[in-house]
Amino acid sequence: MPKPHTFPTLYDEVKTVSISFLTKHGYLKPNQWQSGTITWSSNGNKTGSISIRINTQPESPYLELDYKCNEAPINYRVQLISAPSNLGKGVVWYFVCPRTGKRCRKLYLADTYFYHRSAFRGCMYEKQTQSKKSRYLDKTLGVYFRTDQLFEQLYKKHLKKQYAGKPTKKYLKLTQQIQRAESIPYHEIERALIR
User: Fold this and answer.
1) What stretches of the chain show up as alpha helix (H) in DSSP?
2) Which of 20, 38, 99, 121 is the most buried (most CB within 10 A)?
3) Each residue's pLDDT tens digit, 163-193
4) Which residue from 27, 78, 36, 76 is spatially nearest to 56, judged by alpha carbons?
């Protein structure tokens, strides 16, 4: 009898709350109370939203999450902590996972609550679910199959190609990847796909 299929929850597909998102939208300015809504969408369709309240007062900073899961209302707080930046300018914020107590910069909703990724069992990143052949193809020929994406990035409206008369690192990286993709002989691509 064959082993039943197991389809793990992928971290790449679950909803997340990240420090970088909160910082980008001005929620983590010092000594303030602020509330708002985080909305997720896929292909232009709204897939979910939650209400958040953030307190960055020095006494006890926290992020409060308010949402419904399976029609049950859920409301809880996630402690925030800050540490001085290694650049000597400002602070770096972290969540403290309510379940594991670990310091992290991203919380995942793989079940009912937003936790650190180590709090969930049976979850994986998409890369971990690929077969050995898929990983080999991605490593050797992946750049060939991503050529269209590379050209899109290269010709983006606001891509800076030069700074102070020198090519930018991003521009150089994109051109090198495109050159590498174009230098792969077609017979190697055929051979790898047949393997």
Assistant:
1) 19-24, 126-129, 132-145, 147-154, 169-182, 186-194
2) 38
3) 999 999 999 988 988 888 888 787 777 777 6
4) 27
